[in-house]
What does this fold into?
Amino acid sequence: MEQRKLMEFGKSSFIISLPKKWVRENNLKKGDSLALKENSGELVVSAAMKESEPVQRKIVIDTRGKSLAMISSEIVSSYLNGYDFIELLSADIETRLSEIKEVIRNLSGLEIMEQTSTKMVAKDILSPKEVDIPSIIRRMDTIVRSMIDDSIRCVAESDGQIRSKLITNIRQRDEDINRLYFLSNRVIRNALKDPSFARAMNMDPWKLHTAASIILRLEKIGDRQKRVAKLSLDYECKPKCKKELVEIYADLREKYHDVMKSYYTSNISTAFSVEVSNKARIERCNDFLKSCTNSSAVRIVENLNGMTTSIKYISRAVIGLQD
It folds into this structure.
């Protein structure tokens, strides 16, 4: 850590010199304003936000000889890393057009601007400054709640047609969750790389890290609902077992509601309570399998255990926010 001497200036002020390297890296000059923030015995000095024309970043992806999975991975990676233009090149790109368009549709703000027989150009038309991370978390939470409700109905329901309709709805909402997950990750990465952007969002690095952790867990919980709903198609057991499984599921739903409420209200005691009870929830799930050994039931319980683990990690994230 570099140290600087404090010098007295006049009768009411003190001054320190700033490292020339830092001044140059932040494009500062004499007369520019600096932002000062007091924080637990520290004084954080940062370059004041300047309105400047953003630099448009472009990446070119050669898709020749690559599998669709590899192409999809490179597109998503480029999106998350903040590229504004993604150009795909291939002599036979038209043969994979529908699959590539499906990948792009799952990335919020990314639109196809140009397309030929050998090239496709997608542009991000959504400014990160227009995205509010707390609002995304609330939106994801709302969707996850509805997915949990419908997944419980799938487990309780005996009518195959009703189950199939519920599963279709859950899958569609899972796609919405994925889009919000990718969008929020793109914005959070941007903020971590650009302190001035993070300040504009009123989020320090720890808050950004916590938000990213919660968003990841919401996405995982959403995935669990999709899997449980699908498994319910092959799940048949005695009414007593089904009733018990629905009760276990409903209890997990209640704990999920509790942990998200603790996040919104900064209620640390509730978060602690949810975390401490995690072991009991897992034990209850495992005890259920002693009376119901149906293969689908086993896989459903595996997903419920994964769900309660994600709930536990959300509670830990909330606890980490306490002063």
Q: What stands out?
A: Residues 160-193 form the longest helix (34 residues). The CA atoms of residues 236 and 318 lie 38 Å apart. The chain has three domains: 7-47, 58-124, 129-319. The chain has a mean pLDDT of 89.
